Amino acid sequence: MKIEMKVLEKFFLLNSFLLGALCFSQQMDNRPTKESFEKETSIVNFKKSKSSGLSISEKHHQFGKSSLQWQWSGGGFFETSDFRILTKKESPLSYGDYFPASPTLVMSLYNEKAQNEAIKISFEKGGKEEVWFPIKLNFTGWRTIRVPFFEMSGNAPKKGEAIDYDTFKVSCSSAKSKGKLFFDDIVYSQYMDDRHPYPDAMVPFIKKDKQNGEDHWMPLIMDMERIQKLPLKTVSETEKKDLSLVEKRLDDTFNRNGGKSDNLIKAKNEYAKLNLVKAETVLGPPLVFRIEEVYSDKEDASQNNSKDVKDFGKSIKQIATYYLNSTDVNKAQIEEMFINATRYFLDQGWQEGACGGTRHHIGYNTREIAEAFFMMREPLKRAGLLNQVGNSLQWLFNLGKVLEPENEFVANIDYYNTQSFYHLMLIFMSDNVEKQTALLKAYSNYISKTLALDNELGVFKIDGTSWHHGGHYPAYGMGAFASIPPIIFTLSGTQFRINEAGHKNFKKSLMITRLYSQLYDYGFGNAGRHPMEESSIKSLKNAFLLMAQSGNPEGTSKIDTEAAAAYIRLWGDSDKANTNLFAANNVRTDVLPGYHVLPYAATAIHRRNDWAAIIKGYSKYVWASEIYVDANRYGRYPANGSIQINNIGGDEASGFKQEGWDWNRYPGTTVVDLPLKELEPNIQLLMFKSDETFAGAVNLGDNGVFGMKLNESKGANSEGGERNNGFPGKLKANKSVFSFGDKLICIGTGISSIDTEHPVETNLFQNSLADKSMPISSSESKNISTFPYQSAMQIVEGSGKWLIDAYQNGYYILSPNTIEIRRQAQESYNNKVSVNNISNDPKFTEAPVTKGDFATSWIEHGKAPNDASYQYVIYPRLGKDVADSFGEKAANDKSYTILRADNVAHIVKDNETATTGFVIFDSTQELDNDILKSVSVPSLLMIKNEASAITISAVQPDLNYVNDKEKKGYSMPVELTITVKGEWKLAANSVVKSIAISGDTTLITLECRHGFSNQLNLTKQ
Fold it and tell me: For the chain, does the N or the C end have fewer beta carbons within 10 angstroms?
C-alpha cells in the first residue's frame, strides 16, 4: 500500500508540474487571437505610415461599442505583430476533422464613401510579404469577409496547412489614394470548414478551384450578373394582365381581410426589440448569420450583443403585418419604423453582391425577411429603397439561377423548400415591369423544366421518391411539397403557368406521399436522420388542396380530380366545404393500391383497410439511414429489413415512440444487439451502403414480395466519401417478406456473424405502452398484463406457438427458435445525443436519457451464428378479442404454402390467388419448382398460374445507377432471362426483349430498369 501511495504521489506531482508548465507557457503568449478594438490600448502595438491616422471610434462598430478607424492619404498603411494564430483544436469546427478545414482570416470593415481605389491585406514573416489579396472600395456599409490563406496570392500554403506569419498589414499603394475605413472583429487566423468561406463581389477569387456552387448552395456572382445583364422587351397588355393577376394572388397570401385596428403600440414594442439608433446611418447590433462558425473568446460578453438575421426577419415581418392591418392614422409612424429597419439592414452589409463571409443554406433563415419586404413594397418604393432592397434579396436568394442555360438546370429539393416560392415573390421587388416580365418567364421555365426532371438531375424520381443527400428523404420533401403547390396555383390559368411535364411529375411524387404514409405518418424506415420524430404528411393539407384547385397538369380542367380525391380521404372530415365542392364535381374519395413499391428507396408498402406495413431495406445504391453529428446517433438498423405496421392513428398510436426506444429493436430487422456505445459509429456522419445490389420488391395485383441481401461486412459511406468498410460483426442474412392478403410471411436464412460477444436477433415487435397494463398474449400465457414480465418460448417445428402484441398484431412462429418476450421499463438515449460524446451540441436542451414502458419480443439466434434462420407470419390488426382463437386460426390457415426457404431461394405460394412468389438469391442453381426452372441473375418474381395461361411479374432489383459516386441516382437497364417450364407464347400487350422455346422450356429475356416490376402474360402454345 505504501509503495502504491508513493507512486500516486509522484504521479500527481508530475501532473501538477506538467499542468503548471502548460499554464505558464500559455500565459507567456497572451497576444490577442481576435481584436475587437474595445480599448484605446488595442492599438498600442500597431504601426502606421506618416500619412495614416489610427484611432478607436464609436461612430461605427460591430461587436462591442467601437472599431478601429484608419484614415490615410497617399500610400498609407498600418500593421501589427500583436496577435496569435489559433490552433485547429481552438477553432470552432462543428464536425471536427470530418470535413477539411484550413487557416482563415475573418474580419469586418466599414466604408462611408465608395471609391474606385483598392487596399491590400497582407501577411508577412521576417519582414517579407508572404500572402496578400486586394479589396476594392466600391461599396458602402459593413462588409465581413472570410479568406482562407490558401486562397490568397503569393507564397500561399496548401489547404489545411498550418501557418506562422508574424505581421498583419493593411496598405494602399496608390499615391492618389485617400480615404477612411473602419475595421472590427479581426480573427487573424482560425481553422474554418473549407466549405464555408465563399466568394462575393469583394473577394471574388475565393473557391477559384471549385465549380460555382459546388461546395454549398449559395449566391453566385455569375447569377447576379445574369440579372444585371437581362435583356428587356416591351410588355404586351396580356402579359401585364397576367402579371397583375399573379401579383394579386401573392398579395392575397398575406393580406387577410381581418379588419383594421390600432397597432401602433404593438409595432413600437416589436421595433424596440431591434435596438436601433438613428444617426448618420441607422446603428444597431451586428446583423449576423451563423456567428457560431467564427471564433469568439468565451469571456467576450459582447458576442451576445448581436441580432440573428432570422430573428430580425420575424420582427420586421410582424411590423409589416401591423402596418397592413393598421388604421390610416398610425400607418405613417409604423412605416417610418420599417424604413429605419430597412436602412439598418442595408448598412449592415446585406446588400447585392455581399456574402458576409458565408451565407449558405440561406433560405432557412431569411423567409420572414423576404415576406416582410414583399409586403412593404409600396412604402419601400416611396422611400426610394425598393430596387436596392430588391437587388439585395434577388442576390441573397440567388434568383439569377433561373436564367442559367437549360443544359445546366439541376433540381434541388432544398431550393424548392426554402427559395422557390420566395423567388416568385422577389420578382416583384422592382419597379420595372419589363424586368418583372422577363424574370417571371424565365422563372416559370426554370421551375417547369426542373420539376419535370426524373433522371439523375432530378429530385422527384421516376418512381415517385423525393431525393436529397443522394436518396429518398421525405423529411426534406415535405418542405418542397408545401412550397411548390402555391407556385402552381399562383401561376395557373396564366401564360406563366407551370408546364404539363413539370406539373405532372411533381404531382406524381406528391400523390405518392399518401401511399407510403398511414394515415399521415411515413414511419422510421425512411426518416433519414429524424427517427421517431415528426415523420408525417400532416403539413400537406394545403398543398393537396391547392393542387386540386390548380387544375390538372394538362390544363383542361379547373379541378384536379385525383388530388381532390386524395384530399377528401385525408382531410375531408375536417373540411366539409371543400369536400362538398369536390363532390359537386363528381369527385369521390380515392382508393389506394394494396401493394406499392419504391425501388429507389428499397421500400415496399402493403396496405389493407385500416393498416399499412412499411417494409424497408438498403443496398449498394440505397443508404440504410443518415447518422448525423447531432441526430440519429444510433440509427444503424432501421433498414435491416424492418417491418413497421401502422394503424390509422400513425406512429405513436401504433406503438412507436422515442422515449425509452431501444435502437436495436426496430421490428422485422435482423441485428447484432449492441450496447449504445458500440451501436453508435465513431465518426460524425454515416450513410451506410452495403456492397449488395439485391434489395427491392415485386408486385402483382394487390400483393407483393420484398427481398434483400443484408450484408454489413463491407460497404461504403454515402456521406463524405467512400470511408467505411463495414461493421465489425460482419452480419449477413437473406431476408424476404411475402405480402399476401391480410398477412405477411417473413423468412430469413443464412444468418451469420463473427461477433462472439453480442447475440444476433430478429425483432418481432417493440411496442411503446401508453399504459403498463396494455396486455400482450402468447400461446404460453394469454392476456399478459404483468409488468415487468419476462419469458422465453422454446419452439420446435410445428408446435404452433404465437404472440399478439399490444396493438393487436399477431405473430405465428413456424421455425424452431427461441422467442424472448419482455414487458419492462426501458432506458435509452435521445437520438440527438452522442453517448460517446463525439460532438454533443452544448445548446441541446432535451433530456439525454429517455425512459418508457415497452413490450418487446425477438427471435434469438445466439452469438456468432452460422446459417441461422427464421420463419414467421404476421397478421396485422386482429381486433381486441382474438387471443382465444388466434392460435387455432393461424394453425389452420391453408391460404399459403412455404415451398422453399434456403440460401438459394425463398418461395411461397398464395393458394387463394394461385400466385407463387420467388425471392431468388442464387441464380446459379435450378429451382425445384413446377413453373419456374431458373433465372439468369438474382431476382424477384410472382407467377400466377391459371392452367392454360400464366401471368409473370418480375424484377431484377439491381438499380445499376449511373454516376452513383456523384449520388445522383438514375437506373440503367439490366437484363433478366427467365426459363419457364413448358412451351408458351406471349399474349397481346406484353413486351419482352426476346422469347424462344428450347426443348420443353421457354426462355424469356426482359430489360429491367428502375427496379420496376415487368408484367407479362403467357398462353400455352
Answer: N
Query: Does the pLDDT value for residue 434 go beyond 70?
Result: yes
Closest C-alpha among 443, 450, 452, 449 to residue 403: 443
Res 7: pLDDT: 34
255-284 per-residue burial string, b: 16 or more CB within 10 A, e: under 16 = eeeeeeeebbebbeebbeebebeeeebbbb
Beta-carbon neighbour count of residue 869 at 10 Å?
21
378 within 8 A of 429, measured Cβ to Cβ:
no
Is the pLDDT at 5 greater than 70, yes or no? Answer: no
Are residues 400 and 362 in contact, defined by beta-carbon separation less than 8 angstroms? no
DSSP tag of 86: P
The answer to whether the beta carbons of residues 642 and 663 sit under 8 Å apart is: no
CA-atom Rg of the chain in angstroms: 33
Contact 852, 768 (CB under 8 A): yes
C-alpha cell recorded at residue 7: 507512486
Gap between the Cα atoms of 193 and 844, Å rounded: 22
| Residues in Cβ contact with 606 at an 8 Å cutoff, skipping those fewer than 6 apart | 594, 595, 612, 613, 615, 703, 704, 739, 744
d(CA 808, CA 826): 21
Strand partners, 872: 746, 813
CA 151 to chain centre: 30
Give CA–CA dist 532/661, Å, rounded.
Answer: 9
Q: Which amino acid is at 814?
A: L
3-class secondary-structure state, position 410 = coil
40 contacts: CB under 8 Å, gap ≥ 6: 56
Nearest alpha carbon to residue 513 among 530, 536, 483: 536
Q: CA-CA distance, 174 to 167, in Å (whole number)?
A: 21
Q: Which band of pLDDT confidence, cut at 50, 70 and 90, is reported for residue 218?
A: confident
Instruction: Report the pLDDT averaged over residues 656-663.
Output: 98
Alpha-carbon span 110 to 131, nearest angstrom: 23
Q: Which long-range contacts (CB under 8 A, 24 or more apart) does 263-269 make?
A: 263/322, 263/323, 263/325, 263/326, 263/330, 263/334, 264/326, 264/330, 264/333, 264/334, 266/322, 267/319, 267/322, 267/323, 267/326, 267/330, 267/333, 267/334, 267/337, 268/337
C-alpha 865/C-alpha 484 separation (Å) is 50
Tens-place pLDDT, residues 437-492? 999 999 999 999 999 999 999 999 999 999 999 999 999 999 999 999 999 999 99
Position 19 pLDDT exceeds 50:
no
Q: Is 706 helix (H, G, I), strand (E, B) or coil?
A: strand
Provide the 10 A C-beta neighbour count for residue 566.
25
Quick check: 156 and 149 in contact, CB under 8 A?
yes
Count, residues in the chain: 1021
Average pLDDT over residues 816-842: 91
Residue with the larger pLDDT of the pair 823 and 253: 823
Question: Which residue, among 553, 469, 443, 566, has the nearest Cα to 506 in the 3D structure?
Answer: 553
pLDDT given for residue 86 in this prediction: 95
Q: What is the C-alpha separation between 236 and 933, in angstroms, rounded?
A: 68
Q: Are 446 and 439 in contact (CB under 8 A)?
A: no
- pTM comes to 0.91
849, β-bridge pairs: 829
How far is CA 621 from each of CA 525, 616, 708, rounded to the nearest angstrom?
A: 16, 14, 13
